[in-house]
Amino acid sequence: MSRYARQLLLSEVGPDGQARLASAHVLVVGAGGLAAPALPLLAGAGVGRITIVDGDTVDLSNLHRQTLFSEADQGRSKAEAAAARCRALNGDIEVADLAQVLTAENAQALVAQADVVLDCADSYAASYILSDTCLALHKPLISASVLGLSGYVGGFCGGAPSLRALFPDAPDSSASCATAGVLGPVVASIGAMQAQMALNLILQIDPSPLGQMVQFDGRTLSSTSFRFDTAPEPDSCFRFLSAGQLTAQDHIVDLRSIEEAPIPAHPDAMRVLPENLHEIEPNTDKRLVLCCATGLRAWRAAEQIQPDWPGEIVLVAAATS
Questions:
Q1: Tens of pLDDT along 147-183?
Q2: Is 237 labeled as catalytic in the residue annotation?
């Protein structure tokens, strides 16, 4: 019996749908908790080509939610371990693993090759880099975020509004799974929804998940959903760049203290703490580059400085550069 027999019975799949799955290429950025359910579901469904991008390694503190891995995988590349699990699940598909961080430098080449992009990264910078790139290349993006006992998943770009259309301002909190905690089943629920949205796109199931947001609350075991098809794109935004994309013509400011980051994001960076933003003098001839660990402090600083800075302001998340 065919490994796909049970889904071939569905009118939404059938032989034609299975053929679409086999010819599809899905890019998954991040091989952690969200990818733990998403990857095997995509591989099991017969998505013909999967590319996994993650520059991190497996840690014991990850295993409660990153269930693709075992204790024996500690210290191993997440991308490599996740790809091995997918290949073991389905030997008929092609799985590529890239043990590297997504950056503004490599995003375009990675996204351009994919039919659908899954944002499974726990990074503000990665999410917005993916959204900007997918919007420019007209590629669909399934982006998700989980913290504590709640999370969301939405379909962006590819003809729908981008992540910036729904979240144009800097996030309210700098909390992450590492600092605020997270419960595994909540992550798994959202990750499985990402896989379902991706399959819906590939199988062309109506209504399209693009332009739809689903929010899940693990505390009350309830979910809500709404569409944002008509959300306008912001008139301007602060782009994320990598340190390697900066030039001698840029005015580079690292917002971290020497204690936090002994090595600045760029050799030419000057140190200015967020409470001393008034020290940054406007310069009509230079692009202002604001750097911090995650990009959040830089984004908030950019919002404060923008009224007085005549030129472009860009952000660097040093942890992902």
A1: 889 999 999 999 999 999 999 988 775 555 555 678 8
A2: no
Which is catalytic among the residues 177, 237, 291, 292?
177
Secondary structure class of 240 (helix, strand, coil): strand
pTM of the model as a whole: 0.94
Express each pLDDT in 50-63 by its tens digit. Answer: 999 999 999 998 88
Q: Do residues 254 and 268 lie in contact, with contact meaning Cβ atoms separated by under 8 Å?
A: no
| b/e map 228-260, b = 16+ CB within 10 Å | beebeeeeebbebbbbebbeeebbbbbbbeeee
3 state DSSP class of 179: helix
Q: Give 3-state DSSP helix, strand, coil % of the chain, rounded to 5.
A: 35, 20, 40
> Which domains does the chain show, CATH number per domain?
5-227 (3.40.50.720), 240-320 (3.40.250.10)
Other C-beta atoms lying within 10 Å of the C-beta of residue 261: 18
Q: How far apart are CA 146 and CA 162, in angstroms?
A: 19
